[in-house]
């Protein structure tokens, strides 16, 4: 009797254990299924599909942008001459039509040394072009072809680049490594960048993008989702840390608003000369303000000889820290200045020969200096 009771109890215990295991397995199965479903629900707004896999962008939109914009994008070929020696095929780049009159925007560095220029159209034709205006300080140039040769091609519209925001679609079209009419897709990585031109002058408000840019893309358009030009692809900065990270590249484009502001001058066969003060400097840091009580502005670290700054009597900090005597530019014509880019952005609204008023912090006092702007030097 005792044996039977023990056996019965054992059987009962085994059945309960089996039920518990089945219940646990069932709950785990339900939990996994629910987790999978919830994952799909949350992943779908991010562009994931359980049928099509990851969707990085609207492929039909990008294809449409390419089909509509690429006919206006050209490949530029230049030849150089050294005395009587002519070197055809000396360089290539990209450009794009901005009107039906044959005007093509490109980079200054693409056509700077060109003796002869030809452009290849999307239909394969090669036609001659002439160089009109250039702005080395902005790395921009205009070349022109016969309007009859581009009849029927829809030019690209220039967008308001002040409305560009990080994260927006960025599509680059050009001829990297002479691969004609190639497309690269990415996003706007940042705005308000300030890379230097060939004249070592900052180009304000540059647009940074992760869209792939390579040699030959220079001068081509960077488009938004509406197919408008937000920037002119200009340069690529690469890191070189001795490993694979050095292979990653960051692309930059001259903002379209810079092109818009210069177009009347660039359509004339002349070189646009940006104004020059003649200083080097750095923004006043938080530590400088806390330690020395300096106001927000740009402290002058060097004054070029025979420059407007020199003639106006600007004094540099000869050593910093250590030498607490020197000038800090806090405003130009009443506009607050916090960086070199701020200065360049404002001075771009002026021309050589214009007079400006500098608000300067000197020896714990605020003084005003007037100077007349010179053209930015070639070297």
- Tell me the name of the CATH class of the largest domain: Mainly Beta
SSE pattern, N- to C-terminal: HEEHEEEHEEEEEEEEEHEEHEHEEHEEE
How many separate domains make up the residues? 3
* Unreliably modeled segments: 1-19, 36-51, 241-247
Q: SS-based structural class? A: alpha+beta
* Quaternary status: single chain
Whole-number mean pLDDT: 82
Strand order of the largest sheet: 3-4-5-8-7-6
Shape: globular
Q: Which terms summarize this structure?
A:
single chain; 379 residues; Pdz3 Domain; 6-stranded antiparallel beta barrel; 6-stranded antiparallel β-barrel; 22 strands; globular; disordered N terminus
Care to describe what's here?
With about 375 residues, this protein is of the alpha+beta class. It folds into 3 domains: about 1-55; about 55-270, Thrombin, subunit H (Beta Barrel); about 275-375, PDZ domain (Pdz3 Domain). It is built from 7 helices and 22 strands. The chain has helices at about 1-45, 60-70, 110, 255-265, 285-290, 310, 340-345; strands at about 50, 55, 75-80, 85-95, 105, 115-120, 125-135, 140-145, 170-175, 180-195, 205-210, 220-225, 230-240, 250-255, 275, 280-285, 300-305, 330, 335, 355-360, 365-370, 375. It has a 6-stranded antiparallel barrel with strand order 3-4-5-8-7-6. It starts with a helix and ends with a strand. Mean pLDDT is about 80; it is low at about 1-20, about 35-50 and about 240-245.
């Amino acid at each position: 009797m005792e044996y039977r009771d023990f056996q019965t109890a054992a059987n009962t215990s085994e059945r309960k254990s089996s039920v518990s295991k089945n219940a646990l397995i069932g709950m785990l199965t339900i939990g996994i299924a629910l987790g999978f479903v919830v994952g799909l629900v949350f992943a779908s707004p991010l562009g994931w599909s359980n049928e099509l896999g990851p969707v990085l962008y609207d492929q039909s939109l990008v294809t449409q942008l390419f089909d509509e914009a690429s006919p206006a994008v050209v490949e530029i070929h230049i030849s150089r001459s050294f005395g009587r020696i002519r070197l055809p095929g000396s360089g290539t780049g990209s450009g794009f039509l901005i009107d039906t009159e044959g005007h093509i925007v490109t980079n200054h560095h693409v056509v700077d040394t060109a003796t002869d220029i030809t452009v290849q159209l999307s239909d394969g034709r090669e036609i001659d072009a002439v160089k009109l205006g250039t702005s080395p300080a902005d790395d921009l140039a205009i070349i022109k072809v016969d309007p009859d040769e581009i009849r029927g091609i829809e030019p690209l519209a220039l967008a308001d680049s002040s409305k560009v925001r990080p994260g927006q679609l960025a599509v680059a079209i050009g001829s990297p490594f002479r691969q004609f009419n190639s497309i690269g897709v990415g996003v706007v990585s940042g705005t308000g960048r300030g890379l230097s031109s060939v004249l070592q002058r900052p180009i304000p408000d540059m647009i940074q993008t992760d869209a792939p840019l390579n040699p030959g893309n220079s001068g081509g358009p960077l488009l938004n989702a509406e197919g408008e030009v937000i920037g002119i692809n200009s340069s690529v900065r690469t890191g070189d840390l001795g490993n694979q990270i050095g292979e990653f590249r960051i692309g930059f484009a001259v903002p379209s608003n810079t092109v818009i502001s210069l177009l009347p001058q660039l359509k004339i066969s002349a070189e646009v000369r940006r104004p020059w003060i003649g200083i080097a400097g750095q923004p006043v840091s938080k530590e400088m303000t806390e330690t020395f009580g300096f106001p927000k502005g740009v402290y002058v670290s060097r004054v070029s000889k025979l420059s407007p700054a020199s003639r106006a009597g600007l004094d540099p900090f000869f050593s910093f820290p250590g030498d607490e005597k020197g000038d800090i530019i806090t405003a130009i014509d009443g506009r607050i200045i916090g960086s070199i880019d701020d200065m360049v952005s404002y001075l771009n609204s002026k021309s050589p020969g214009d007079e400006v008023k500098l608000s300067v912090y000197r020896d714990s006092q605020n003084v005003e200096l007037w100077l007349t702007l010179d053209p930015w030097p070639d070297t």
